[in-house]
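Key idea: predict the complex, not the pieces.
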Amino acid sequence: MLHLPVLRWGQPYTSLDVDPVVHFATGEPIANVSRANGGLIQRDMRKASRARDVLREIPVDELIARVGKAGELYMNGTLPMGDGTQTPDEFVRAQSASTGLPERMCRANMKKNSFVLAEMRGILTSLTRGLQFDILTRGHGEERGVPVSYQPQSPVVGLVLPSNSPGVHTLWLPVIPLQIGLVLKPGPQEPWTPYRMAEAFCEAGIPREAISVYPGQGDVGAAVLESCGRSLIFGGTATVDRYRGNPAVQAHGPGFSKILIGDDQVDRWEQFLDVMVDSVLLNSGRSCINCSGIWASRHTRDIADALARRVVAVRPLPPDHPESSLAAFTVPGVADAISKEIDADLQTSGVTDVTAQHRGDARLIKEDRADYLLPTVVHCDSPEAAIARKEYMFPFVTVVQCPERTMLDAIGPTLVCSAITCNGAFRRSLLDAVHIDRLNLGPVPTTQLNWLQPHEGNLVEFLFRARAFQSADL
Amino acid sequence: MSAQTARDRLDAWVREIVDWHFDPATGCPFWLEFAANAGWDPRREIAGFADLRRFGSFEDEWLRGGPVQRWIPRGLAGKPVFVFETGGTTGVPKTRVAFEDFRIDYELFSATLPDEYFPKGSNWLMLGPSGPRRLRLAVEHLAQYRGGGICFCVDLDPRWVIKLIKKGWNEHLQAYKDHVIDQGVTILQAGHDIRCLFATPKLLEALALRLESMGTTIRKAGITGIFSGGTEFTPQWNRFAHEELLDGAYMTPTYGNTLMGLAASAPSGPHNDYKIAYYAPQPRAVIEVVDFDDRGRLVEHGQTGRVKLTTLTKEFFMPGFLERDEGEREPACDRYPWDGVSGVRPYRGFASTTTVGVY
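Result:
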């Protein structure tokens, strides 16, 4: 069985505490993962500046080339995985086995990560708005005749990573070419991507001492956040609330992404049904960019009914089935709790589980050790219903009846908003709405990302501070 | 001492303690009333440790609320008495009366400390929970008992720490930890020639990291011997501390609480992967590891179960108290010819509601 050690600035460290990673369906151990402890991280972080130093010795252009090569290795190579190795197929199988995500979705997420690495130059050009990369290395320079200075706020970035979707790793991939070190705390069920990516980077020529990987429990996540000047953390609403306003932490939580249909377009809603289905179902509804709310002023029952008829076709299939679209819940009790919470919300007047009418059986399916929640479409007569503001880690969507004029006030925080309207005034309001992060105007699936654009904040602005700088000859 | 001798000694001690606590002339009101209602006479029916199961489980709630005087043995009436608390972050804490037990417990523990690292007459620093707990007085007595050392103390209120954690007030938590460590560092640098330290693992780690950031170490600050304890004291942390924090200072893990006393540990290190096995100071206290469902049944050696404590002193009789911890039953070792427990961690039944590592 594989053993994945702690990586302390690239050096493997075998802990006396190990956590098993098990197959979600069989319970069979797949790997043992060394568990770090908080103090160990705090000690290591005393040498964090070394990570930036070694990266700064390599020009950004060269780092971009190397991470491009890393992307190829990550996608196609046989790479070290702890004390063993993994082919791409073995990686996919392991990731699927521990996260419950169907293998085809694991492959899709691999492609996503690999694409970002391959397109790094364009992504960095976009995120830096065309800044000469060597200005980031030197800390100052001149752009369009104006002195500019960018100061990194931390030599390393801490990442407290989730287990739900390997696609989120795209967010931190630009860090290394920005000459900032990586301090990764993998999700307990998804250690695979951080380790494979770290090995791909190293084989592509990124210095080992620029990357640390600290698997572990809550104290490890806390130590990463405490020790790194800048961190990203992935979690639930409570996590986001906890770190709101903390300039050192960028918290990524539920997206509450939505499709809004304006009054001018809602009468031809059938034309947008595919966009709605894709937005709900892609990646088994696990992403923050999956649509969890469809809002319109009329036809909402018909929309919900049509959507429900489409999504009820999705059933659990073996993870290696080429059409498998539904991920399993791998943590015992979670699916039960979610299903019960939905049932409780359905007691509210004007709230209906439309899928229940078409499914014919229960929402929760138990197969051996795995639990599945079948896609669920809930209709709400009003945005007042509590369930209209819920998001879950499976294909779940509410279709909410709400007048267009009050829609923007009622939707709440929204990571991705696809607004289907040609109404100029409504579009203007959408553009001005500060509680919407990513805005798509037109029938764009909420899950369709343009990688050249920032996601929940610009990573470069998070890591570097633009400041005044002057010098005089001596 | 052989295992059989230890067992005989324990059984004899149990009879003596039961005789004391259930004699109307010497027992405390609580146990005398218990016996009156039980319909059986413990003095006649308890012949040894195994018979204590007749008492069933010692109820947590018996120790909450007053009057605390119901726990004072008549045989000790009039002597100066302490009351120590445990728990109490919310609600009424558990209380235990004590006269000399904490001193005796720590004198026995003292015999396990190597003089090389805990020099007689040297000064101590106590960096841990004080207030209504016995720890401060106990460590202070340990220092005094070991050749007249002086114990410097830094206060820590664990109930406030637990509230900070539950409220998610991380900045306050960090500030409070810094406040405690600031005081510890100040005392260490004040020229008191402190050689020995008690600290909880969290505070020891924080102290070591602070000293490292100042370009020094625990050892260079003068500390040669440390004793520490808590359920977060894992083999990995033990190893990390020895390899990276202590700079050669000696550290011994301990397990204990206000109710039981102090269990020392068998030697641990690279030879046994830093495994920590605790052994109660028999016959004054006994640690058992029992089945999660059948609390009267010991698990096999090496198997996991819930920690059950029994305290057997003339000041306090506590048969079969189920601790909030679990662990693996350990066989006797050279130093301790009776069972111990290793891998102590919060009991899985309470783990999600227990706030650990607060100090």
